[in-house]
């Protein structure tokens, strides 16, 4: 991801075994929601990300606990975040925590939270 000053990380729970379409929808919810957080709270980060082409990376964790730990770490660093819970209309039970959006924010700050995670 070098060369991008700003990026957004979308982290999905691999343990849920979501269908590809479901995973894409949850990543989309995380992307839009955390981008809105950045637009409101860190407009210069958001604008930089928009101007650079909206770099995104999709990563995975193996549990809800892992996702919640990442959310706490991102909040501690002052990053825009959005934790996504499913409405339960298709594959998952209502309220199932599925994804986390982090950023857009400076790439080096995102990497402090997600740098060791595998790609989804």
Outline of the structure:
The chain has 4 helices and 4 strands; from the N terminus they run E-H-H-E-H-E-E-H. The chain is α+β, with helices and mostly antiparallel strands and 120 residues long. The chain has one domain (6-114): Bit1.
Write the layout of secondary structure elements.
Blueprint: E1 6-13, H1 20-41, H2 43-52, E2 56-61, H3 64-76, E3 81-85, E4 97-106, H4 107-114
Parallel strand pairs: 1-2
Antiparallel strand pairs: 1-4, 3-4
Describe this structure in words.
By secondary structure, the chain is α+β, with helices and mostly antiparallel strands. It has one domain: Bit1 (3-Layer(aba) Sandwich), CATH 3.40.1490. It is built from four helices and four strands; from the N terminus they run E-H-H-E-H-E-E-H. It has a four-stranded mixed beta sheet. It is globular, with a radius of gyration of 13 Å.
């Amino acid at each position: 991801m070098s060369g991008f000053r700003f990026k957004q990380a979308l982290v999905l729970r691999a343990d849920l075994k979501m269908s590809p379409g479901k995973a894409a929808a949850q990543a989309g919810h995380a992307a839009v929601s955390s981008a809105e957080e950045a637009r409101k709270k860190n407009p210069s980060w958001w604008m930089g990300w928009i101007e650079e082409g909206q770099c995104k990376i999709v990563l995975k964790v193996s549990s809800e606990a892992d996702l919640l730990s990442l959310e706490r770490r991102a909040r501690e660093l002052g990053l825009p975040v959005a934790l996504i819970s499913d409405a339960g209309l298709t594959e998952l039970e209502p309220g199932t925590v599925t994804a986390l959006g982090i950023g857009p924010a400076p790439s080096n700050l995102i990497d402090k939270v997600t740098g060791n995670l595998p790609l989804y």
